[in-house]
Each structure stands twice: as structure tokens, then as C-alpha cells.
Known about the structure:
Elements: E1 16-20, H1 36-49, E2 59-61, H2 65-75, E3 82-84, H3 93-107, H4 114-117, H5 124-139, H6 151-158, H7 162-170, E4 175-179, H8 181-192, H9 196-203, E5 211-217, E6 220-228, H10 230-233
Parallel strand pairs: 1-4, 2-3, 2-4
Antiparallel strand pairs: 1-5, 5-6
Amino acid sequence: MAxxxxxxxxxxxxxxxxxxxxxxxxxxxxxxxxxERGHRQAERVADRLSAAITERSPLWSGTLxxxxxxxxxxxxxxxxxxxxxEDLNEFSTYGLVRAAVRQAERLGLDLPPxxxxxxxxxxxxxxxxxxxxxxxxxxxxxLEGTExxxxxxxxxxxxxxxxxxxxxxxxxxxxxxxxxxxVISTVxxxxxxxxxxxxxxLAVNLYNASVSELSxxxxxxxxxxxxxxxxxxxxxxxxxx
Length: 241
């Protein structure tokens, strides 16, 4: 049997490291930008992963502003190994919610009160508890709409880089990916063999700037850490949205 690949960081085995973006600007006129706290979270996650990043480490990211702002402290001034791709962009949460509101009666889907839907900051816990039912309707293709696309197309898109990630890990390189909760939960579930109920649960429980790590052992993906926030807790920086 061939010797397992080793990373170039302190002899640790290489990992696929998935980073959720820092806190964005929920409730503002432009969600897609980090809040002040989000920028602090991005600095903390960069500190945590500094040992895993070498001049050979591929850094992948979605193209949304909140992704790129979270990536910046990780990449520093060296962008040679940075790959930005729309494949790692999030689905439209607002699109799914709008479609669910329009189709609720047909789907038999209970809706939160409209004042709660209109104020996601004050009623975040209610909306996070409700949203997995919206995702379930999308995943079983009963929730429809051209603005949201299909679940199967989203899943295929975010997993498109799987072969390249696997090749990097087999060569001994860890891969760091900065993206969103829906993407991370989909990748973790697909690679580790979790069902969609677990994927939905993870999607609404991933903390901003959390770290999830998977390793590749004899061709099989294993979860090493999931939704880890120890780098945020000392400064009270753990947030869900």
C-alpha cells in the first residue's frame, strides 16, 4: 500500500478546509458585505489557519463580496494560488423565501408571520427554524421558480471542483475554500455521505467564519472537524448571521 500523502504543514495530513464567510450585513440595504464584526472574524480565522497555508496551498473562494473580504486576510498579498469561481457562490436565500411565500398554500407550507419575515435580524431564530422546510421543498422539486434554479443543478455546481480538491490532497496539499453555509453543508453532506436532513440542519447552524475540515483516507472522505469556532469564542465573535 502506498504511503499516505503528507501535507507541507508540520507533517499533518492534508485536509479540505471549508471556511464560512464572516458576518455579513443582515438587515441592511446590502447584505453582501462584511460587518465590522465580520472583518474581525476574518482576521481570527486567518490567524487560526496560518500554519495550514503555505506558498503552495490552493485558496478557493466564491466571487461574492463577503467571500472575497473573508479571503483577503488568508491570502495576504500573494494571490498566485487564489482561485475565484462562481461555482462556490450561495443559492439565493431571498429567492427561496419569496418562492415559498408565493407557493405556500399549494405546498401546505406554514409561514412565519409577515412581520417576522420582514425583520430577519430580530426574528433570526424563527426564520432559521423555518428555512429547512423551505429547503426540503426545493430539494424534492415541489418548490418551483426560475429565479432559484433547481437543487440538483446547485449541488452539481458546488461539487464541480471535487476532483481537483482530491488531486491536491493526494499530492500532499491542503485546500482552503471560502464560501457560504449552503455550499459548505452541501459539500460536507455529499462527500461524507450524510443525508439531506443532516445537510439542512448544518446549513442553518453553521457559524460565521467557522472551520470544517475533511480528510481523504484511502479514497474515502472523513469529517475531521465541523463548524468549529474555537478561534472566535475568546472575543465573543461567534455569530450565526
